[in-house]
Structures are given as structure tokens and as C-alpha cells.
Amino acid sequence: MVSTVKCSSFDRSMTKTDNTQDISLHIEEDANLSLEESLYDFFHPGTLEGENAYWCDTCQTTCQAAKNLSYTCTPTILIIHLKRLILGKKIQTHISFNTTLDLEPYVTPGHSSLHGRHHFTPWHERQWALHSNDETRRQMDPVQ
Asked: N or C, where is the chain less crowded by C-beta within 10 Å?
């Protein structure tokens, strides 16, 4: 994953690459968002300001900055963690998802997502269900 932060004062960008294979998505109470919508929110460019302002080495101060996340190559295995606890309270909001997940919109322009076989294995109704891009599906025994 590539994180790019651009200082608004000096028009300077800092890019950091991380080989992460997991994403933690905040789930809001009563948000009624799908997994795809939550991913869109996660990757949507944002502004760092106020208490979350960016420390710029050039400015030598905190300043407003634009932040963007993207992939140069999608990970072989991607774990999506749904953060469903807020101050000890469990969020019961249902998160809908499909058996396929398109990560192409979150890939840096000029790069392409990983090609080949893609599998999606959700935990559903106390069982693991394997879905692959050749449409074969089978139930797997849950881990005890």
C-alpha cells in the first residue's frame, strides 16, 4: 500500500510504501454501508488538519495536508478487519458483501492489480465458505 501526503504550504509530497496485507475498517453504528462502500471511504483522499495535522519537515510545523492511499499491486492475501467495537460497545450493524471484490479502483494509476486466481473466504453462519473466480464453491469445516 502506498500512502502519499502532500503539504499544502510547500506543495511537497511524501510517499511511504508499506507491504501491508490487512485493512481495518471502522464500522459506524447504523451506517448501513456495504463492504465496497466502506473500502471506498477508506481509500478516499482525505485532509489532515486540526488535531490530526501533518508535521512537515520542510515547514518545521504542523500544517494542513492531503492524504491518499492506494495499491501499486494488490496483495496476494488481503485480510479485512471490521472494527466493530467503540468504547467497549459492540456495533451490530450488518455489513453486506459480494463473493467478488474488485480492488482495481484502489490501484495507483499506471499499475495494475494482481492477475490470476482470486479467492474470497468469508466466515458466515459459523462456517467458512470458499468462493473462487472459477465459480466453484464448497463449505469448509470451521476452525475449532
From this structure: C
Q: Return the ∠ at Cα 129 (arms to 127 and 131), rounded to 5°.
A: 175
With a CB cutoff of 8 Å and minimum separation 6, the contacts of 10 are: 56, 58, 59
| C-beta of residue 63 within 8 angstroms of C-beta of residue 49 | no
Q: Are the C-beta atoms of 142 and 124 separated by less than 8 Å?
A: no
Distance between CA atoms of residues 111 and 106, nearest Å? 10
* pLDDT of 143 higher than 70: no
Which residues in the chain belong to E strands, given as ranges?
A: 2-7, 13-17, 22-26, 46-48, 54-56, 61-63, 65-70, 79-83, 85-86, 89-90, 119-120, 123-124, 127-132, 137-140
Q: Where are the domains of the chain?
A: 2-111, 114-144
> What backbone torsions phi and psi does residue 84 show, to the nearest 5 degrees?
-115, 15
What gap in Å lies between CA 63 and CA 55, rounded to an integer? 6
Using DSSP's 3-state secondary structure scheme, residue 113 falls into coil
The 10s digit of each residue's pLDDT in 76-122 is: 788 888 887 777 788 788 888 877 788 888 888 777 665 444 455 66
